[in-house]
Design goal:
The complex is a heterodimer of chains A (356) and B (415). Chain A is an all-alpha fold and 356 residues long. Chain A contains 14 helices and 2 strands, in the order αααββααααααααααα. Helices cover 69% and strands 2% of the residues of chain A. Chain B is an alpha/beta fold and 415 residues long.
């Protein structure tokens, strides 16, 4: 490659950083380069690619292992899953290698039939409605509680380290352990919550067996599990706000509420935008809380989209691979659309300093 | 929470990569020194596991060139685990297979046909019901290990105190409700596990489906009557139930003496006897509905993984024959009180006088075969959810029956 041996200064000056006219002069100076495939006025795609490669080959080599690994463990299953949604694949007709016997795949291409079936059925939409309610309420409550606690812990109080430790505790316990613990607390006959209610002269509640209270219970547990993350993130954000701003505002006679609205909130904006987005995506797909606490019950009333997709894929015989892949792809699409819309909304409000 | 999901995913990915690399040797196979290794996946509980492990490993004394690799994978999720391992060649040579799984595995070609192989010895000796669960499409795909069923457990002291005879029907239970004092209810009705609904459905002469006629029968009169009977027991105060954590609540209520009776299986004998004292525990066949007495037949079989090389296949079949031989069954009954599947074993003195066998043998006689179809396990979820709806007062018995039936028709494509 002739290009590769070009002087580094010329490459750096013309190809990478300087735009427009400079590049044209540079091209004239080093006339033989790019002659053949470049078009007058700017380098062609081929040239640009080649030049990019020659400049950044080192970077490409460095990320190659990561790209390969992600391609194998994320990309391939994704593509394969997408392909399955256009077929009628199930456990009984995919390729099976049973010891020395191999049974070839016999599933057929069915086009968009799976999507039609899922979208025309009522189940998807009712689960989607509940999933949205679940996500919005979990994230909203978690965020508010996290922000409040972070504000309380951001001032000098005695034993602050202890409080912080205690509040992060839910995070340190494996999720399934806390969920099982909660399940015992909620138990109607022997749970401590009902014992407390009855001890206080109130009537016991059917926490996990009444559809409404089951929904409240799963949201409560998810909030309990999610608060530490919010707390840490918001605490970090709060500590990055310079204290001079508060001092100046106090001098100007701003009250605590005014200081909170006009300094704290704008100060934590970029961090909260990110954590809220992440939190939405996590909560939308929060499988363990629902699955371990109520198993989707009572009567499927707490099933979110992912737990329902799991039921389709694994609890039926034969397992319906195509159907559950369709649910998976639809969930992915919803989240991608949500992320795009969220990002656009933030841009419109003029948020340029966020991570994106 | 957040972190743990990320970590779990990373660990899962790593584990996946690691197992993928090591999958070549995970299925057992020919070991060193020309020895053949037979891997046996057992699903028995902790107490049972010790005995099964010892018995399985003693196979080496019968065939010195075979080594048995005993792996206990537990009962919960065992079906999934086998189904994950089987299509990629990672399954064990021999799998302890629940009676309802046989047709499921066989329909997916995961199990080897065993007719006319060394695995089946003295076929006529097997109990008819036990043998039926090994059949799929007219072919034998497994060999029976143990048989079990549900029965009525009662607290003798509480029944004596209330001066109540052991009930023979649901009517009897209802009629006796007033005689008991200081109990939550006489009877605990397990409401969160569809397997426990069978006695009520069979009691009215019904069934979930009729596999021969390929029709759904749960919404027949008998099905509706069964759901009404359940509703009636609860409404009249003769029974209590829960729609979650049923097992813990049931064992707790029975153990504390909050209820005098429950329906349960042989696997619960030890726990129940410990809780209320062995001398206090009585077991009787399940109470009858308005038509008959009936409980679902359960139990375990041995399945041999399809697609084994010839020498491993032969060793696996002989291992299965050994495990279900009369001698081994007798030993297992003596040590664990599980019910044998061979008629000849019941005649052995030590088995015939075994307390548990005395309890359960009559119950097994009224046990009814379920429809052994591959979709068998898919029938449980709809039933559980619809009955849950009824127990929560969201639907009537008629609606419950027809909604369950609609979902079955969807699932099976039958009439």
């Amino acid at each position: 490659m002739a290009d590769a041996s070009g002087p580094p200064a010329a490459v750096a000056g013309g190809g990478v950083t300087a735009p427009g006219p400079d590049r044209a002069t540079d091209r004239k100076d080093t006339a033989p380069r790019g002659a053949g495939n470049g078009t007058p006025g700017g380098p062609g795609v081929g040239t640009r690619l080649r030049r990019g490669l020659s400049t950044h080959w080192y970077a490409w080599v460095m990320i190659a292992p990561v790209v390969t690994v992600i391609g194998v463990i994320v990309g391939w299953p994704l593509v394969r899953g997408l392909y399955l949604t256009f077929t009628d694949a199930n456990e009984g007709n995919v390729e099976r290698r049973i010891g020395v016997n191999t049974i070839d795949a016999t599933y057929d291409f069915v086009g968009l039939q799976n999507y039609v079936d899922v979208l025309a059925g009522g189940q998807f939409w009712s689960k989607l409605t509940w999933t949205v309610i679940w996500t919005v309420s979990c994230v909203a409550i978690t965020f508010l509680v996290g922000l409040t606690l972070a504000n309380m812990l951001n001032r000098k109080v005695r034993g602050r380290a202890l409080y912080r430790m205690a509040l992060i505790l839910p995070w340190a316990i494996p999720a399934f352990v806390s969920i099982f613990a909660w399940r015992m607390l909620f138990n109607e006959r022997s749970g401590i919550l009902n014992a407390a209610l009855e001890g206080g002269g109130l009537s016991a509640m059917s926490w996990l067996t009444d559809p409404f209270w089951a929904k409240v219970s799963v949201i409560a547990v998810n909030v309990w599990l999610g608060v530490p993350f919010m707390l840490i993130a918001m605490l970090g954000a709060l500590q990055s706000i310079p204290s001079e701003q508060y001092e100046a505002a106090e001098m100007d006679g701003a009250g605590p509420w005014q200081r909170f609205v006009n300094i704290t909130l704008p100060g934590v904006r970029s961090v909260s935008a990110t954590v809220v987005l992440l939190s939405c995506i996590w909560t939308f797909n929060m499988f363990p809380v629902i699955f371990l606490l109520t198993g989707g019950g009572p009567v499927g009333s707490t099933d979110i989209l992912v737990t329902e997709a799991y039921k389709l894929a694994f609890q039926r015989s034969p397992r319906d691979f195509a159907g559950s892949a369709t649910w998976g792809v639809l969930i992915l699409l919803l989240l991608v659309l949500f992320a795009l819309a969220y990002r656009r909304a933030l841009r419109k409000q003029g948020d340029k300093e966020g991570v994106w | 929470m957040r972190r743990s999901i990320g970590t779990t995913a990373a660990i899962a990915a790593l584990a996946l990569a690691a197992t993928a690399c090591g999958s070549d040797d995970s299925g057992g196979g020919s070991g060193e020194g020309g020895k053949i290794t037979v891997t046996f996946w057992d699903t028995s509980n902790e107490t049972e596991a010790k005995v099964f492990k010892a018995v399985a490993e003693e196979f080496s004394t019968v065939r010195s060139d075979v080594e048995v690799d005993y792996v206990n994978i537990g009962w919960d999720g065992a079906q999934d685990r086998f189904k994950n391992a089987a299509p990629t060649g990672d399954a064990p040579q021999v799998m302890r297979t629940e009676v309802a799984w046989v047709s499921d595995f066989a329909s997916l070609d995961y199990l080897a046909p065993l007719d006319g192989t060394p695995a089946v010895e003295n076929q006529d000796d097997y109990l008819e019901q036990a043998w039926a669960s090994t059949q799929y499409d007219g072919t034998t795909y497994a060999v029976p290990q143990v048989i079990d069923t549900l029965a009525l457990f009662y607290n003798k002291a509480l029944l004596d105190e209330a001066d109540v005879e052991v009930p023979e029907s649901l009517e009897d239970i209802k009629a006796s409700a007033d005689a008991f004092e200081g109990l939550e209810a006489p009877f605990y009705l397990r409401g969160d596990d569809p397997y426990w609904f069978f006695p009520y459905i069979y009691g009215e002469g019904g069934d979930l489906v009729d596999a021969d006629a390929e029709t759904v029968t749960i919404d027949d009169e008998s099905g509706v009557a069964a759901f009404e009977a359940v509703r009636d027991l609860l409404d009249s105060g003769a029974a209590i139930t829960d729609t979650t954590d049923g097992w813990e609540s049931m064992m707790g209520a029975f153990g504390n003496g909050d209820v005098a009776m429950m329906i349960n299986g042989p696997w619960a004998i030890n726990d129940a006897a410990e809780a209320i004292g062995a001398e206090n525990l009585g077991v009787a066949p399940v109470p009858a509905g308005s038509v008959t007495q009936g409980s679902p037949q359960g139990g375990w079989n041995y399945g041999v993984y399809a697609g084994l090389p010839e020498d491993e296949m032969e060793a696996a079949q002989e291992f299965v024959a050994y495990m279900s031989s009369a001698d081994v069954q007798q030993r297992i009954t003596e040590e664990l009180s599980l019910l044998p599947t061979r008629a000849s074993v019941y005649e052995v003195e030590s088995v015939a006088t075994n307390e548990m066998v005395e309890f359960f043998a009559p119950a097994v006689e009224v046990a009814k075969e379920r429809a052994w179809i591959p979709e068998g396990n898919s029938l449980f979820d709809p039933l559980k959810e619809e009955v849950e709806g009824m127990l929560l007062g969201q639907s009537t018995p008629e609606e419950t029956a027809s909604k369950t039936a609609d979902r079955y028709r969807d699932l099976l494509g039958w009439q």
